[in-house]
Amino acid sequence: MEAKIVVLPGDGIGPEVVAEGVKLLRAVADRYGHHFALEEYPIGGVAMAAAGSPLPGSTLNACRTAAAVLLGAVGGPPWDDPNAPIRPEDGLLALRRELGLYANLRPVKVVEELMEGSPLRPERLHGVDLLIVRELTGGLYFGQPRGREVIDGQRTAVDTLKYSEEEIRRVVHLAFEFAEQRRQLVTSVDKANVLESSRLWRQVAQEVSASFPGVRLEHQLVDAAAMRLVSNPRAFDVIVTENLFGDILSDEASVLVGSLGMLPSASIRADALGVYEPVHGSAPDIAGQGIANPIGAILSVSMLLRHSLGLEQEAAEVELAVQTALADGARTADLGGEHPMTTAQMGEAIVSRLGSRAAA
């Protein structure tokens, strides 16, 4: 296969973890005879410093013509002024909007060897394997009107939570398609006891379920889902929810695997194009120290291979290499262990095990 892959290292630890993801991509290409044309462009804070925009036109145009995009992270203290008219995160939101990436996929699968790193008891973690499907281009993050003004001498802010039935339908439909390939259960999360948008969400989800008679649909309020996610996570298979709820629940789910650094994500649309990034942020407190966990970025590469390039065998091999490295004791500082590895050492540990089980 020949494919153009755009690489957006971003800010903070983004360049460090993306470098290990690129290392994996090159190793997969060598092993299977593929050719991945890797092109690097700026996004976020570094792009603001270099080009005055968190999403320069050259970056957006390159992403539009790519087979897939590998992203690090955006943001950090230099751009944290709440009064700033432009922030690094604006580039990420604009990228999702301009590329029409309406669904975010966040798989959460507990690794047996890392259960001690979670604050939850092991008996609650055995067998946890769930997928959060988050609507990505609507809701509070994009609704209008939004802004701040002074009314009667008081600073006032407004955000608008707005969804159309088509925005809801397409992401719920995608969740059902994934559930068909898994354990045939969709949990639709909303706040239908309070919000009109959630009442519409629940109604449309029920309508979509009629096209998937083999998949069971359950509805759950977001506060109850948040409690259930840590009290009985095995009860979930595919969770589908709106933008804000999905953002919060997927970060909460990181406690199940013991570290935010373990979690990958994919932002996709109906065709093959997608943006793949680790769930963690730019982590400026450890940037430049070479201690960040690259597994979230490496597993994001696995999702890229699967969802955008259709390379299932290669994706599974990357996942197996990660599992083997962890089973053999490879750990970065966030995962504990007596002798934590650097970011690059963990990347090498995983690359060195690529195909090792198959060879054995």
> What structural category arises from helix and sheet content?
alpha/beta
Low-confidence stretches: none
Rg, nearest Å: 20 Å
Series of H and E elements:
EHEHHEHEHEEEHEHEHEHHEEHHHH
CATH homologous superfamily designation of the largest domain:
Isopropylmalate Dehydrogenase
CATH architecture of the largest domain: 3-Layer(aba) Sandwich
Question: Proportion of β residues?
Answer: 15-25%
What does this protein structure show overall?
The protein has 14 helices and twelve strands. The strands form two sheets. The chain has a ten-stranded mixed β-sheet with strand order 2-1-3-12-11-4-5-10-8-9, with helices on both faces. It has a two-stranded antiparallel sheet with strand order 6-7. The model has no long low-confidence stretch (mean pLDDT 94). It has two domains: 1-102 and 265-360, 3-Layer(aba) Sandwich (Isopropylmalate Dehydrogenase), CATH 3.40.718.10; 119-257, Isopropylmalate Dehydrogenase, CATH 3.40.718.10. 47% of the residues are buried. The two termini are 26 Å apart. The protein has helices at residues 14-32, 45-51, 57-64, 88-99, 122-125, 165-180, 196-209, 222-231, 243-252, 254-257, 295-307, 312-327, 343-352, 356-359; strands at residues 2-10, 35-40, 68-73, 103-109, 129-135, 147-151, 154-158, 185-190, 216-221, 238-241, 264-268, 274-278. The longest helix has 19 residues, at 14-32. It is of the alpha/beta class and 360 residues long.
